[in-house]
Amino acid sequence: MKPPTIIKIDGSQGEGGGQILRTAISLSAVTGTPVEITGIRAKRENPGLRPSHLAAVKVVADLFGAKVENLQVGADWVRFSPAKGKFAGGPCKVDIGTAGSISLTLMAAIPAVSLSGNSLEIEITGGTDVRASPTIDYLRYVVSEAYRSVGIKFSLDVLKRGYYPKGGGIVKATIEPCGEPAPAEFVNGRAVAPRITSVCSQLPKHVAERQISSALLSLEKSGVKCTNYTASFETALSPGTSVLVYSVSDFGGPFVGGDSIGEVGKRAEQVGQEAAARYLESTLAEAAVDPFLADMLVLPLCLAKGVSRYRTSKVTEHLRTNLQVASQIVAGCRYNIAQPPGKNESVITIEGAY
């Protein structure tokens, strides 16, 4: 039997980050198509595979019995060949070994597992709220609801927070099978009252409270009222904090969130203001999907049988690149980005073809 053709993906195209690798690996696992990613993170300060990227690839490879070539820190290429019809399943534990993002590892594993019609319980140790990554609360409060609307169901239990530099956060994920994702129509940007969740660890109580206060003030200045907010104080190996402002609805959106994390020398007020500003960018534009979620929706919708549309406030390079990668791997997948005249928004159309 003739071996399947390996699809070659340029890892330096577009935004040139680790998302190209994660999307390619996930789609490879679901479709059974082998891929070779070259020029991995070539334009980044520390090019090649980092520990968090390696962890994501290894998790998916182990789950799907895939053969992976050149999987090592610093590698500028990887070849991933899934074993057709093989899924290890069962509960498993993964330790990233650093404060690497648990969220990004999960965003490689969740769609791969669910869209291949499998279920899984997985516990991952690493960073829950780290730079250049969505916070774990963004995943469990925003992404989970949007994914549920297209048929992918998962739940997250945060057992321990993990911040830079020690990491040590622990998250347990339960993923349910999705036989076929449903096309989405997320164009309803109607107003839904926001919620705020603020978390801090090994820091004074007032840090989380000041984050909430500054976020509330920013919202009020833009005419947005919020009466639902919580502050929590959780265990972690390193001090850290995060805040999320979000609105979600079961009726076609919105699915909008804005998060921010604390760092040394960064005032709590700034953390709250940043989260509110990211939330308001989408809300004031009456967008149904925020720019970060717009990127994450590409993977399931490129596999949905039918046409999906969603409205976002900004088209990022991450989104453009993810659309291009998905169309390379999923034969027949087509997409379009349209910006209505005079509107501060864009409508993404994806025609799935799996």
Question: Could you explain the architecture of this structure?
Answer:
With 354 residues, the chain is of the alpha/beta class. It has a domain of 98 residues: RNA 3'-terminal phosphate cyclase, insert domain (Dihydrodipicolinate Reductase, domain 2, 2-Layer Sandwich). Helix content is 32%, strand content 26%. It has a 4-stranded mixed sheet, with helices on one face. It has a 4-stranded mixed sheet with strand order 5-6-8-7, covered by helices on one side. It has a 4-stranded mixed sheet with strand order 9-14-16-15, with no helix packed on it. Helix 1 runs parallel beside helix 9 and helix 5 packs parallel to helix 6. The mean pLDDT is 94.
Please give a handful of descriptors for the protein shown.
26% strand, RNA 3'-terminal phosphate cyclase, 4-stranded mixed sheet, alpha/beta, Dihydrodipicolinate Reductase, domain 2, 354 residues, RNA3'P_cycl/enolpyr_Trfase_a/b, ATP binding, 32% helix
